[in-house]
Each structure stands twice: as C-alpha cells, then as structure tokens.
Here is the input.
Amino acid sequence: MSVDLAQLQPEQIAQLQTLLSTIPAKPDEPPKRKPRKQDTIKYLSEEQLDRFFSVIQKPRDLAIFRVIYHRGLRASEVGRLQLSDWNRERDRIRLFPAEGVEWRRVSPHVSRGASTPRLAAYTRR
Here is the structure.
C-alpha cells in the first residue's frame, strides 16, 4: 500500500513524524531487556520426585525419565536415544551429539536412581 504524502493533512504528517521518531536509528541493535531477578536453583524434594516417578506407568517411559533425570540428558540427546545405544556389559549409554558438540557417554547407574534396573526391566518385556 502506498500513500501520496502530498495528500496528507498537516496533523497526519505530524503524527507520522512522531511515530518515526520512536524508531531507533540503528535497527540492528537488539532492544534492551530488563535485568532478570537472581533466581535460585530449585530442586524437587525426595517426596516430589517419588510422586513424579510413581505416575509413570509404562516401563519404557519410566526407564527414559530415570535416565533423563539422573544423568542430565539434553533434549536433543533424548530425541536421538535408541535402546541399542545402551551397552549392558559396560553399563554405559552412548549419546549422539548435537551439531558442534562432542560425543559423550554416561553411566545410567546412580545410587538412588535405579536407572540400570529400569532399563533392564524394560528390555525383558
């Protein structure tokens, strides 16, 4: 849509000038953000964690969520995770990296998490 500036009223031109003056001179500069509050890191309590895991019904899902929670998997790693990535003998999970990230291997076994027994239970089905 084009507008002939010669047909605008003086009030309309003044409104346009006011509007245009609010646009920053350097459009490639990002807008300034308000500073964030200092958040404290929050963790689930033991009870909350037990309640969370207790509602997961499928052995596969429980194994996945245990490994995610206890080993700190990234979302991109979870999306690429295959059962064949688990080395039962060495009790290790091979994770496919996102672009620009190096390979990493994690152990699913942790003292409280019981990730390894959950993986084993899932594979027996």
Observations:
- Residues 59-71 form the longest helix (13 residues).
- The chain is about 40% helix and 5% strand.
- Residues 1 and 7 are 15 Å apart (CA to CA).
